[in-house]
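Exercise 7b. Backbone tokens:
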């Protein structure tokens, strides 16, 4: 392993079992940073965007960030990049925990998986010994058992495991990849791609920490930034004490807490399922952090029956809670545990059930189709647990749920009941209540997503400054900056939550200190712009045209019926032309030749 910006790549052909080592250095690293950016560049250069995501031609790329494994605060993230089956877009899912740092320590910054194995396999990295091994004995096993068995065989309990559960093996369209049992590269169906390749897991233990960076210079910056994170109200108080579920009451009180499949903007039982309730009901055992994290927003919880695990996070608690009309924290937490064990994206799992509940409520799904399962009524605790397990195993009606809410609703002739963008389920913020965030949803490169440009930060929380959520002026500019900055954060391997306390200048300072690069803040942000445009171009070549930059009609035609935002609709269509212009794209949303030339795409 050379300098921090000399990327060591493992290329693994699952069909031939050939493993090669390559290097990426120089301008490509400086232009794309690592993580999401560099992996997306590799995918764009090597993969036809038209391939079937679940075919052997697709590639699955594990990529650590430029600062992953360094002392940078939260510098432990890794990305999984591929063409996603749920959306057909470029897919990049981010995960924390400790796996990413261990992979970087091992001297393997990126792994490119190609082809399809003849039978189930896993990749074992034990110091310099790297080999594909038979995974038949763990195929079909849930995530915790798979993790424990592989570590036992490995013979070192310090090894880190990233794997799929039954949902990935059965190619559930929103299957996740799990590491350390409870951390997830969750969205866009990356787990289904892994399953389609007969790849069950990656296990890694480094023999030494092979990350060479300017530690002395970096530590000066890290100490300052850690202090900033600990003194910030969100990263120093809210997230450590209540985790991401600190948001439940905040979002509900602002009238954009989607309820009963986005039919309403407030949930009358929010206090029963909020982060505060997790503490008051005695479920919360302790908080925890990922590698290098001073924030520690993770939750170790235990149910009254003694069953324990991690979570639920804000999005998960909402998806199985308010969106399904459920106020039973026990059932919500159980559904969360099942998602982690089976390897499901909790957002898509919960909101797909919510869409099914509306279809059932309106008479489009008949009780006979549910194979003696519980009725799909809003508010049913039994239903969210039962159907989560069914979809993870693709049993009974769960086989239809496993296709995601868009394909489910479309099969009944009512795609308008699916609350999705580019076929990916929207997360826990109603766009009728936040105009900038609605534009971000519509233009996200991976479909319905809140972490490609978290406009909730300025529009609701007030960081870095408070914006009127219903104001249109200036929102396209804000969305572009947030999208480009997020691409930088994902690519350097830090957690998005740091952006509550840190700004562009802070990221430039830690990147330059650790690497010796000499980015200006403007140049660093331009790398994010380059990454965002590259992803956009991939999607266009994959047939995801700009006319898919749209929200479901419910948000533009049906005003919010309740709460502080009553009467509001999303006006994102008014913002799109200016957003395209600010992006330097054509009037109809295509990446212009001049923009490609400017960014070197």
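Sequence design result:
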């Amino acid at each position: 392993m050379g300098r921090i910006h000399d990327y060591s790549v493992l290329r693994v052909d699952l069909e031939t079992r050939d493993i090669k080592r390559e290097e990426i250095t120089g301008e490509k690293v400086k232009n794309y940073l690592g993580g999401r950016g560099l992996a997306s560049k590799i995918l764009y250069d090597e993969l036809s965007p038209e391939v079937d995501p679940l075919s052997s031609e697709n590639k699955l790329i594990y990529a650590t960030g430029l600062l992953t494994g360094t002392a940078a605060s939260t510098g432990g993230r890794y990305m999984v990049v591929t063409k996603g089956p749920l959306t057909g877009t470029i897919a990049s899912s981010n995960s924390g925990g400790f796996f990413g740092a261990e992979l970087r320590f091992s001297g393997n910054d990126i792994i490119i998986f190609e082809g399809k194995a003849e039978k189930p396999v896993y990749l074992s990295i034990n110091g310099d010994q790297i080999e594909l091994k038979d995974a038949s004995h763990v195929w079909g096993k849930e995530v915790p058992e798979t993790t424990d068995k592989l570590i036992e065989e490995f013979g070192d309990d310090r090894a880190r495991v990233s794997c799929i559960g039954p949902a990935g093996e059965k190619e559930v369209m929103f299957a996740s990849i799990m590491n350390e049992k409870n951390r997830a590269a969750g969205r866009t169906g990356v787990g289904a791609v892994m399953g389609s390749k007969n790849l069950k897991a990656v296990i890694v233990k480094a023999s030494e920490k092979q990350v060479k960076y300017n530690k002395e210079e970096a530590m000066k910056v890290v100490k300052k930034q850690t202090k900033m994170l600990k003194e910030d109200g969100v990263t120093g108080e809210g997230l450590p004490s209540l985790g991401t579920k600190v948001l439940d009451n905040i979002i509900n009180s602002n009238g954009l807490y989607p309820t009963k499949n986005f039919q309403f903007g407030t949930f009358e039982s929010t206090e029963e399922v909020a982060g505060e309730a997790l503490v008051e009901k005695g479920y919360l055992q302790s908080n925890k952090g990922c590698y290098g994290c001073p924030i520690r927003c993770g939750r170790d919880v235990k149910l009254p029956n003694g069953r324990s695990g991690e979570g639920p996070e804000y999005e998960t608690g909402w998806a199985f809670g308010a969106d399904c009309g459920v106020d039973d924290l026990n059932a919500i937490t159980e559904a969360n545990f099942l998602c982690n064990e089976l390897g499901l994206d909790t957002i898509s799992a919960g909101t797909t059930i919510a869409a099914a509940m509306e279809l059932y409520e309106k008479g489009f799904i008949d009780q006979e189709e549910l194979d003696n399962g519980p009725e799909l009524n809003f508010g049913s605790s039994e239903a969210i647990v039962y159907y989560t397990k069914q979809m993870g195993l693709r049993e009974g009606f769960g086989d239809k749920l496993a296709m995601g809410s868009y394909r489910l609703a479309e099969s009944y002739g009512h795609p308008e009941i699916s609350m999705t963008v580019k076929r990916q389920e929207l997360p826990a913020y109603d766009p009728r209540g936040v105009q900038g965030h609605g534009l971000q949803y519509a233009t996200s490169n991976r479909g319905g997503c809140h972490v490609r440009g978290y406009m909730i930060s300025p529009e609701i929380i007030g960081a870095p400054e408070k914006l009127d959520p219903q104001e249109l002026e200036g929102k396209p500019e804000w969305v572009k900056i947030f999208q480009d900055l997020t691409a930088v954060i994902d690519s350097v391997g830090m957690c998005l939550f740091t952006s509550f306390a840190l700004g562009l200048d802070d990221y430039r300072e830690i990147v330059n200190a650790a690497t010796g690069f000499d980015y200006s803040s403007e140049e660093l942000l331009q790398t994010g712009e380059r990454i965002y445009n590259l992803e956009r171009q991939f999607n266009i070549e994959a047939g995801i045209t700009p006319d898919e930059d749209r929200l479901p009609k419910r948000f533009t035609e049906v005003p919010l019926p309740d709460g502080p935002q009553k009467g509001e609709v999303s006006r994102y269509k008014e913002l799109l032309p200016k957003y395209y212009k600010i992006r330097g794209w054509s009037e109809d949303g295509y990446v212009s030749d001049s923009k490609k030339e400017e960014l070197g795409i």
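Instructor comment: Residues 8 and 23 are 5 Å apart (CA to CA). The two ends are 28 Å apart (CA to CA).
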